[in-house]
Recover the amino acids of this structure.
């Protein structure tokens, strides 16, 4: 587990970009083209944004709070442009995204307590 967390911390930018691209693609794909998955739409939003925040918060770089706010802003932007992609924009989706971000921050905080970041001097 420690090795996996260190790997995520080292390549957090890659994982963050990959996860955000996946979320954006799925969020802008028409509902009819998506496979049926157990759970509600709000649950999917919550889980997606919880996972999106994990690499950032496991690494916790210098400007983490600005990046965190950017995730929320990008989430809102996706909601605003969804009607142009044959999807429906909902404020409750944005609320679920924000709740997911908060939950991801809490989970990463707990993981960082259990597996602290060791700074190596060069």
């Amino acid at each position: 587990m420690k090795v996996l967390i260190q790997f995520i911390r080292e390549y957090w930018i890659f994982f963050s970009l990959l996860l955000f691209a996946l979320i954006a693609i799925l969020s802008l794909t028409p509902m009819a083209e998506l496979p049926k998955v157990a759970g509600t739409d709000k649950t999917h939003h919550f889980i997606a944004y919880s996972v999106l925040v994990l690499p950032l918060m496991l690494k916790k770089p210098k400007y983490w709070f600005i990046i965190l706010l950017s995730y929320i802003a990008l989430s809102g932007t996706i909601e605003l442009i969804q009607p142009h992609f044959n999807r429906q924009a909902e404020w409750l989706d944005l609320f679920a995204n924000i709740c997911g971000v908060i939950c991801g921050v809490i989970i990463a905080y707990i993981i960082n307590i259990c597996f602290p970041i060791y700074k190596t001097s060069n």
In short: The chain has one domain: 2-28+39-114. The helical segments are 2-10, 12-28, 41-59, 64-81, 91-114. Residues 2-28+39-114 form one domain.
